[in-house]
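G., the chain you wanted modeled:
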Amino acid sequence: MEDTNQAMDAIREQAEAVAENIVILSERTQAIGEIILTVNDIAERCHLLALNAAIEAAAAGEHGRTFAVVASEIKSLADQSKEATAQVRSNLSEIQHGINASVMLTEEAVKRVGAGKRQTDATQSTIRDLAESVQESVLAFQQIVAGTNQQQIGLEQVIQALQNIREASSQTAAGTRQLEGAATNLNDLGQGLVEAVRNYRV
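Predicted structure as tokens:
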């Protein structure tokens, strides 16, 4: 479980680092977009200047023919610059959308990793609580077993005491029978003595 937490922390840190790099890339893309706007503005101004130069060259007649060729080339370059900047702006726009999507996905990944981390922490806490509960149950069971063993020992002692009482009773009964026999013998002996005395008197 600890390894899982460390792995999720590493993933979260990597995702955050990727998100930071994407944000930096987005800022640089925006800066490039601003430069493209400047280039496009310059191209439009060059296009306008080329049109004005072409008009002036046409007004100059034969003397402005060479200037008209130069103005035409400037206009062509301005048009190409505008097309190139438009293409770059389109590509930058797509890149920006991709960057924004990547930022959102990265943020979502960070959130999910965070949620997974919290869930893992909660699971780990539950497992710890369960382990403590199991430990308490084991201790309680051990106490019950110990108490049962003590009860068993007490029961064995009671049984032993009953056996001792029974043996003592048997011994007492045997002693009583011996006393009864001795008393009978004494009684017989007394009767014999009485008869002997009577006979002696006669």
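The chain is about 95% helix and 0% strand.

Shout if anything looks off.
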